[in-house]
Amino acid sequence: MPPGHVRAMLLIRLNQLLSGRSGISPELIGALAEAVRTGALPLVHRLGAIGTGDLAPLAEAALALTGERPWVTGHVPPVPVRAGDALAFMSSNAATLAEATLAAMRLDTLTRASHAVAALTYVALDGNPEAYATPVHEARPHAGQVACAAEMRRLLGMHQTPKPGRRIQDPFGLRAFPQVQGPALDAIHYLRDVLAV
Predict the structure, then answer these.
(1) Which long-range contacts does 88-91 make (Cβ < 8 Å, 24+ apart)?
(2) Distance separating alpha carbons of residues 191 and 76, to the nearest angstrom
(3) How far apart are CA 34 and CA 41, in angstroms?
(4) Sign of the C-alpha dihedral, residues 60, 62, 64, 68?
(5) Beta-bridge partners for 41
(6) What tens digit of pLDDT does each residue of 104-129 get?
(7) pTM above threshold 0.90
(8) How wide is the angle at C-alpha 134 spanned by C-alphas 155 and 118, nearest 5°?
(9) pLDDT-derived band of residue 50, with 50, 70 and 90 as boundaries?
């Protein structure tokens, strides 16, 4: 598993365990916290579980904390496994959540970049500002669409009424950008809300 993914998995699992109700021993939680604090990363494979996909990565992480598996970077002193610790530590979807969280962060970067590309395309084509006008999007105020149009106005410096464009109607990709990008922004926002919980 890539280092960033392992780090995210450990952090998510620590956050889950610190919320309580797992029955896990404080020593194991402390060792996990120390690994996160110091940047120690256990050797974790992405694949290898039968059934729930997070069992093998979490088992490898727990075994590293107990001194039974190797560390790729750093290490923490081994801690004993108490009765019930193993099941409590592995009863999580932290690896899947880590992958989803990292993907959501990449999607944020890509959507910001796509706004910049669309704005540069607008400038290059001397676009018609009506496609991003506030009244247009207030008529159908889907949250992502409104946010996209607002971001386009911000990037293009449309603080007052902009001058009309060269054409009555721009190419479809330029004039429909908020309506197409908006649902993607809504989906990413929903994903982030789910991941935050």
Answers:
(1) 88/17, 88/22, 88/23, 88/24, 89/13, 89/17, 89/24, 89/28, 89/58, 89/61, 89/62, 90/54, 90/55, 90/58, 90/59, 90/62, 91/22
(2) 33
(3) 11
(4) negative
(5) 73
(6) 999 999 999 999 999 999 999 888 88
(7) no
(8) 35
(9) low
